[in-house]
Amino acid sequence: MRKPTQLLVCAALTALCLIPHALFAQAFLDIEGGLVLGTPYNTVRIPNVGGTTFDLAKGFQPDPTPFYRIRPGITFARRHTFTALYAPLTVTYKGSFSEPVLYNGLTFPAGRAITARYTFNSYRLTYRYALIDRPRFELGLGLTGKIRDANVDIQSADQQTNFANVGFVPLLNLRMNYKPTERLSLLLEADALGAKQGRAEDVFAGLTYGLTDKLRLKGGYRVVEGGANAGEVYNFTWINYASVGVVVGAWK
User: Fold this and answer.
1) Prediction pTM value
2) 3-class DSSP string for 118-175
3) Where along the chain do its domains lie?
4) How far apart are the C-alpha atoms of 172 and 230, rounded to whole Å?
5) What is the separation of C-alpha 51 from the centre of its chain, rounded to a whole number of angstroms?
């Protein structure tokens, strides 16, 4: 990722963590990790016009891939929440193409051993407003600004090339939290939006359990799906995650 963007993200994360409590704010930190369960499809064509379409979910096996996500946040007056997200991800595939593939100006013959590295790092800032804020049920809607830092690297024994793509994506944010008991919650969180040029969905569904007022465990299923069909890029992927995590602070 470009250095100015890294500095911007770091500044945003720091600011969210350092806003003083005198402003009647409640801060929290959401740390999530786990394992990528698989990618039902990861379809690539670069260049968009003239390149060969291939699917890394066919003829390739992904390496076991752990992941982590860090999300600090702060809530004002119970209903206004700001969060920042850092979510890096690189999945490595090994296999071979069933036909010659023209990718980013190089032709990779069929049957040759290939290592492909798919990187999709995500950096986001979100504002959400709690439309419903009741003891047992919460519903919030908001907006997310996302910077995607994507790269597809293809390498054989005698050649290698990669295509990096950094861009801004606006998304809608949703959060629903239902508490059947004082400690147990059913949680649904999502960033998603679709347009002619592509789409993006990042959805978590799972459970949280409060060990104390300031410490909650979480676990569930996350899916990231979407991609772009614009300019030089054609890439759509679906990634499944098994996710566990911990939330420290007054979480909203």
Assistant:
1) 0.87
2) EEEEEEEEEEEEEEEECCCEEEEEEEEEEEEEEEEEEECCCCEEEEEEEEEEEEEEEE
3) 3-249
4) 21
5) 27
Give the Cα separation of 41 and 223 in Å (integer).
Answer: 12
Asked if 170 and 145 touch (Cβ cutoff 8 Å), the reply is: yes
Q: What tens digit of pLDDT does each residue of 208-251 get?
A: 999 998 999 999 999 999 999 988 999 999 999 999 999 999 77
Residue 14, φ and ψ in degrees, nearest 5: -65, -45
Q: What is the biggest distance separating any 2 CA atoms in the chain, rounded to whole angstroms?
A: 64
Q: Which CATH architecture has domain 3-249?
A: Beta Barrel (2.40)
Residues whose CB falls within 8 Å of the CB of residue 58, separated by 6 or more in sequence, listed in order: 98
251 token code pair = 């979480």
Look at strands 80-87 and 60-62 and give their pairing: unpaired
